Amino acid sequence: MNEDYFLEQDRDHEFLEGNRGLSQDQRAELGLGALVFVVVGLLVAMLAFVLHEAWPSFAHNGLGWFGGGGSVDQQVQAIFNSGEYKTAPVYTFHAWPLIWSTILITVGAVAIAFVSALFIAVFIVGFAPAGLRRILEPVVRLLASIPSVIYGLAGVLVIVPFIGNHVITQSEKASVTPVIQLSGASLLAAVLILTVMIAPIMIAVFADGLQAVPRGWLEGSLALGINEWRTFWKVAVRTARPVLVAGTVLATARALGEAIMVSMVSGGVPFAPNPIDGLIFFFEPSQPLAATIIRNTEGLSSPPMKHTLYAIAAVLLFSSAMLSIIGWAAKQPMRRYGVVS
Amino acid sequence: MSAVSATPVRRPDTSSASWRLSDRLGLGLAWLLGLLFCAIAAAIVVYFLVEGIRYLRPSLLVTNPSAASSESQTGGFLDPLLGTLIIGTMAMAIAVPVGVGIAVWLTEFGRPTGLARVAESAVEMMAGEPSVVLALFGLTLFTLPALGFLSQSTHGVVLGQSFFAAAALLSLVGLPLVVASTREGLQAIPSHVREASYAVGKTKIATTRRVLLPAARPSILTGTMLGLGRVISDTAIVLLLLGGTLTFQAANSTPLLGLLRGTGDTLTGYIYYNAPTGDGNQPSKAYAAAFVLMLLVLALNLGVDLVLSRSRKAVTWK
Fold first, then answer.
1. Does residue B157 have a pLDDT over 80?
2. Which positions in chain B touch A37 (Cβ < 8 Å)?
3. From the list A24, A25, A153, which residue is nearest B271 (CB)?
4. For residue B308, what pLDDT is reported?
């Protein structure tokens, strides 16, 4: 403890004595509370603002906004031109191909990532030798922090050409030429890369949850002669179910909002992949909602286009807000029985 | 993945030979996926390091990008690299004080409980917000005439793209990580430490500043590095709010303010531009920039590991 320390302590007391009705603590509490209030207010303002800007597009299309019909490209062009040439604003927009693509890519990636992340988290927490575990933990953190544009670059330079040249056959390409070009930028590429991107998020959350399961519960099961795998699967994984939901929801939100990587590898064609096409379905290009915003940012100068883009943003915002509320609610049981802080 | 239990469930000396087939298959699958995961990570890192070393020339780091058709004339990425550093510093300069403030309020004060609940879920929501949506919001926010002084305007129309705008929105991207990490650190300090400080007559805020925050410093540092990693990896906000103009386009000739009010680019924006899907389409430049960005991210990760392992070894509260 040096002299400065005592000087500072004295200053604390000066503060205390020199107050005007409020103690130093109360002022600090008010100040910090105000800061929190401002940040919360900012978020609420953002919600209100985005919804307000999105309103003209929704009001004009009604529920048809979420439906299909017509070519999205042509609609976007018409919307953009109407603003650019100052004619009567056009708002007709049917986003189904974009929504369908978002659903396919997100659900596909989340499903694959969930299964692998669960096994990997179980492996890390329960079964990996200590050395391997020390490697796996930083690896999870590293994969979670690689920028999405780097994933996109790897996708567009490695995965997409590979799918285009080696996985899709010439006859498959020829069979759909009148409708669409199969270049390799596809549902498959987007799902695969997105899986690698979101799995680390899930693994980190899952592993935390599994780690928090009291050891006594596991040992109780082991003492009954149940083998380690079954014990872990039936006791730890089951206890951690709320955390599994929370992690999945978190990763889903990330997958939904991923724009850069997906816009690079999914083909950027507002086309709705059709499951009836058989295997080709996985090779068909598409364009999800978030990527649509990135690809049309020049359109912001045209008011109707701006409202349309905000409508897309509002859908994303609403979905991710719902997801974070679900995730927060899902964690509550675990918190209640004191397993997770 | 904070706490590591001392012993895994499985004792190394037991054999799985007596297990049911399904259990053995499950364990085998876990091993397989675990190793596959390591292999994928190694493949990504090694691929980018090898390609990066192949294409990275020292001259790329000191020349500016220029629009040209041939690869030898498009220059390097000095400005995007500086842009990444500037934007990271600016965003964290906002996110760290605000994030620590929020975390302190949530753990130490937290009244009224309603506001605490709302704040908690708001921060969680912010973490899940797509950055495109944040970018779109920011673009309209900063084109408001009232905020015109933060960017440049032509004929009264505010452009809304500047380092200030991008940093402000990127700080929201880093904020949740700082809050979460700082909170974790503060919660790990047992209450008797606080009581000891109150007992010698310290006020609550003095306790926080002199005892709790210093003790939580490793957590704050971790949160800062994680947040910084997220900030420099973001592309959408950079493209929309920084302009993605490859070089710095200062708003006016004022030394620093003019630059910060002007548009620019970061490494992520540069990579996006030079990817085959972008307008530049020069993969060799993209690889080189990705290599540099990857090194930054790896360095931040190493930093986090270092701080975590050091704080694990540090004295624990008894």
1. no
2. 115
3. A153
4. 83
The encoded tokens of residue A330 equal: 């899902």
Q: Tell me the residue length of chain B.
A: 318
Task: Report if residue A76 sits inside a domain.
Answer: no
Pick from B229, B236, B118, B100: which is nearest to B174 by CA? B229
Question: Cβ–Cβ of B290/A12 closer than 8 Å?
Answer: no
CA A333, distance to chain mean position in Å, is 23
| Chain A partners within 8 Å of B17 (Cβ) | none
CA neighbor of A338 nearest in space, from A244, A268, A242, A274: A242
Contact A240, A304 (CB under 8 A): no
Number of other CB atoms surrounding residue A203 within 10 Å: 31
Across the interface, of A199, A264, A300, the residue whose CB is closest to B275 is: A264
Q: Does B23 touch chain A (CB under 8 A)?
A: yes
For residue range B2-12, list pLDDT tens digits in order.
444 444 555 55
Contacts of A135 in chain B (CB under 8 A): 38
Closest listed residue to residue A322, CA positions, set A314, A333, A311: A314
Of the residues A45, A65, A85, the one at which a domain ends? A65
Cis peptide preceding B112, ω within 30 of 0: yes
Chain A residues whose CB is inside 8 A of the B239 CB are 294, 297
Spatial contact of B92 and B226, defined as CB atoms under 8 Å apart = no
Q: How many CB atoms sit inside 10 A of residue A337's CB?
A: 9
pLDDT digits (tens, 9 = 90+) for B196-251: 999 998 888 889 988 999 989 999 999 999 999 999 999 889 888 888 788 888 87
**At B182, which CATH number?**
1.10.3720.10
Contact at CB, A147 and B232, closer than 8 angstroms: yes
- Residues A128, A11 share a domain: no
Tell me whether B204 touches chain A (CB under 8 Å).
yes
Highest averaged pLDDT of the listed ranges A298-312, B91-105, B230-244: B91-105
- Tell me whether residues B290 and A158 touch, CB distance under 8 A: no
CATH of the domain at A282: 1.10.3720.10
| pLDDT of res. B90 | 94
Cβ of B271 within 8 Å of Cβ of A149? The answer is yes
Nearest to B221 by CA among B133, B314, B151, B292: B314
B158 has which bridge partners? B153
Q: How far apart are CA B126 and CA B141, in angstroms?
A: 17
Q: Which of B19, B50, B132, B270 to mutate to test the interface with A (most CBs of A within 10 A)?
A: B132
**Angle of helix A303-336 relative to helix B131-142, nearest 10 degrees?**
130
What domain count does chain B have? 1
**Total domains, chain A:** 2
SS3 B264: strand
User: Tokens 């049917």 correspond to what residue?
Assistant: A94
The whole domain housing A323 covers: 96-336
- pLDDT of the residue at A3: 47
Q: Chain A contact for B118, CB < 8 A?
A: yes
Classify the complex by whether its ipTM is higher than 0.95, answering yes or no.
no
Q: How far apart are CA B220 and CA A54, in angstroms?
A: 38
CB contact under 8 A, A126 and B300: no
pTM above 0.90, yes or no: no
Does B287 contact A at CB distance below 8 Å?
A: yes
B267 contact partners, CB below 8 Å, separation of at least 6: B77, B80, B81, B83, B84, B232, B289, B290, B292, B293, B296
